[in-house]
Amino acid sequence: MKPTDELWEGLIREIREYARRRYGGSRAIGVYIHLADGKSHYEPFPDETPAPRDRARVPRWNSGPAPAHLSDFRQIYWPDVSPQTFTLSETQALVVKQLWDAWQRGEPEVAQADLLRRAGSESGKLADLFKGHAAWGTLVRWRGNTGLYRLPVLEEDVPDSGEAA
Questions:
Q1: Based on the domain organization, do 40 and 71 belong to the same domain?
Q2: 7/70 same-domain check
Q3: Verdict on whether the full-model pTM lies above 0.90
Q4: Range of the domain at 25
């Protein structure tokens, strides 16, 4: 291991411990680095669980034909978009959870005001909450000037016209 790798691994351990103590046991999954030029860079942390001996036999949660999410919705997998896996902030995750629940109920479109209010967001617009995030327009989609938002349509959601291809 190079000295820079050791330093980074040490920082990850310290940040995870800080987050556990500061935020009641919550697990840190990454960190944003804000640069002097105004840009930000997100660094995801490696998984804390040890790697299984035979990775070929353990299916990954973020693969296959069906969308998936971790229990807290902080990471989302959606197979029909690129990128396919998204890491979200806590508030972004609360918005996506609402969209997911609505999609599963068969009522996929939700009003922006409802999404923001239920997520406890200080933002007045979803565009502000997701500003600069790959999920905006890819995972979180809007329908014109209606104020309604949804997750992407999956190929399986499109009704079959009955015509052969």
A1: no
A2: no
A3: no
A4: 3-48
